[in-house]
């Protein structure tokens, strides 16, 4: 990723400022998806947004700061989606878990974004403190989310055991989200979601 001069931003909390930030983030997301991490830069984001480079640098101190914000938004957005499907509606715990996993494994936008962040961006966490901190926040939220699900499905688990199994759940889901090929035949995607549901139910049901 190209380096640009860093300028510490102090963007005013105005409607115009919020709109400009959203404009920058939308352009950054599109650029990241098209060019990947290697072709990502603040200059490229500015060009995509139709702004001057100084405008982007005013709101974000570095390209890494933009990526960190995108990663934070990614986990918050999908965390809310997961809990809405798990917590909403009727059904057994297994049926509610299936609704959440069916979304995670079959939503094209989620799997696309997961691949970008977990394969490309996360690979540079060891070199960039800002991205490393964002990645830490990502997993803290993700682990806490599945710890809550584990507590609902098996209240007998200790907090320590819930945390351990939540990490195993996340590893299983991310692996399937990133590596699962596109399923063209009807029913194949549903089969994968049900297999994942059964695997996680077995994982969480053990004392």
Number of domains: 2
Helix content: over 70%
Q: Name the CATH class of the largest domain.
A: Mainly Alpha
Unreliable stretches: 2-12, 181-187
Annotated CATH homologous superfamily of the largest domain = Tetracycline Repressor, domain 2
Helix-strand sequence? HHHHHHHHH
Tally the helices: 9
Mean pLDDT, as a whole number?
A: 83
Q: Give the second-level CATH assignment, the architecture of the largest domain.
A: Orthogonal Bundle
Largest sheet: none
User: Can you tell me the overall shape?
Assistant: elongated
Measured between the Cα atoms of the first and last residue, the distance is 46 Å
Structural class: mainly alpha
Which topology of the largest domain does CATH recognise? Tetracycline Repressor, domain 2
Number of DSSP E strands: 0
What is the beta-strand fraction?
under 5%
Rg, alpha carbons:
19 Å
Give a quick precis of the structure.
The chain folds into 2 domains: 15-61, Homeodomain-like (Arc Repressor Mutant, subunit A), CATH 1.10.10; 71-205, Tetracycline Repressor, domain 2 (Orthogonal Bundle), CATH 1.10.357.10. 74% of the residues lie in helices and 0% in strands.
Structure description:
The protein is elongated. The chain has 2 domains: 15-61, Orthogonal Bundle (Arc Repressor Mutant, subunit A); 71-205, Tetracycline Repressor, domain 2 (Orthogonal Bundle). The chain has helices at 15-35, 42-49, 53-59, 63-87, 93-106, 108-121, 129-153, 159-179, 188-205. By secondary structure, the protein is mostly helical. The protein starts with 14 loop residues before the first helix and ends with a helix. Helices cover 74% and strands 0% of the residues.
